[in-house]
Specification:
Length: 352
């Protein structure tokens, strides 16, 4: 059972982990404790190709200084040789006597570090502050299990389910509070996705902005999907991040490419055609529906064909939350899991 000192060290390791970048590899932090509980060293993973958190911490100690020490780390020490060697071996060679980790490594390539440590006589305990650690790298874990980023599909609609008036005008269906919420969520994403139809019709900047119009510090990579050409002077080409263009309608291929680039969270904001396609293909992990108390009527529906021929085939959702934003309502819903994307593995931690 973990001691109070070890629990405090794990909480510190989680703080350290947050300093690391999101991407192909998980954010991991580590703290080395002396046999009497003093902090000897701290470390975290700074990105692909750099030492893992445990090795980063050990590198700050003189040879032999970690003998009999306890390594507290937010993720099970890896058992894989990629750009760096196995952390489990580094801990064994350093003479560490005990390892406390928060969660097991979910990848087939890197798991097994705990077993290797035990075989070498190291005392190992897992599950300490596990919920907090899993929350920290939730998107990375999801990418390992599904092979693709977490996808949030957003749309704004009138109370009668329209995305625009019959003349095509849609700014602004929702009010300022809802728009601020959208931009905050954009900033939390690694990529923002729109279709060429929306880019051509509305010329969106696809940036994350503050209420005064200034750019937020965190900006998602703009992604444009579709076979139509994007104009040379399109606003998206002036985005602070270099845009990615995919001349395809194969959404799974796009998501796989983004996963290989280290994208963990995708925000889809590309109009009814693209939103419908993500939902229809079972690629939406979360739906963000902003509902304004206004009636528009007409034919401009917020969603199109979802491949639902009968009521029995309806796509069932679980409502995760309801939130009032000014005069508008935000419904966050999660599709009930079906199909092949409910499981899978995307092995990436070994790339570091």
């Amino acid at each position: 059972m973990a001691s109070a000192v070890e629990i405090d060290a794990m909480r510190r390791a989680l703080q350290l982990a947050r300093r690391g970048p999101r991407g192909l590899n998980p954010q991991v932090g580590a703290v080395i404790l002396s046999p009497t509980g003093e902090v000897l060293a701290e470390g975290y993973h700074r990105g692909a190709g750099t030492p893992h958190a445990e090795v980063d911490a050990l590198s700050q100690l003189a040879p032999g200084a970690a003998r009999g020490a306890t390594a507290v780390v937010t993720l099970e020490p890896c058992n894989h040789t990629g750009r760096t060697g196995p952390c489990a071996v580094a801990l064994i060679e350093a003479g560490v006597g005990r390892v406390v980790h928060a969660i097991d490594d979910p990848t087939d390539t890197a798991t097994g570090g705990a077993a290797r440590l035990r075989d070498a006589g190291v005392d190992v305990e897992s599950g300490v502050e596990g919920d907090a650690a899993e929350h920290l790298i939730h998107d990375w874990i999801g990418l390992q299990r599904t092979g693709r980023p977490h996808v949030s599909v957003k749309w704004a609609q009138s109370l009668d389910g329209r995305a625009a008036a019959d003349d095509g005008s849609s700014q602004w269906i929702t009010g300022p509070a809802a728009r601020r919420d959208v931009h905050a969520r954009r900033a939390q994403a690694d990529a923002i996705v729109a279709g060429t139809g929306t880019v051509g019709a509305d010329d969106p900047a696809l940036t994350a902005r503050a209420a005064d119009g200034s750019l937020l510090d965190a900006q998602p990579v703009p992604v444009v999907i579709g076979k139509s050409e994007t104009a040379p002077d399109a606003a998206v080409r002036r985005h602070p991040r270099e845009p990615l263009f995919f001349a395809t309608h194969d959404l799974r291929a796009v998501l796989a490419d983004l996963a290989d680039r280290g994208v963990q969270r995708v925000f889809v904001e590309g109009g009814p055609t693209l939103a419908s396609a993500f939902v229809r293909e079972g690629l939406a992990d979360e739906l963000l529906v902003y509902v304004a108390p206004v009636l528009l009527g007409g034919s401009r529906l917020a969603l199109g064909d979802l491949g639902v021929p009968t009521i029995d085939a309806a796509r069932r959702l679980d409502v995760a939350s309801l939130q009032t934003l000014g005069d508008d309502l935000l419904i966050v819903a999660v599709p009930r899991p079906t199909g092949p994307d409910a499981a899978g593995t995307h092995e990436n931690r070994g790339e570091a």
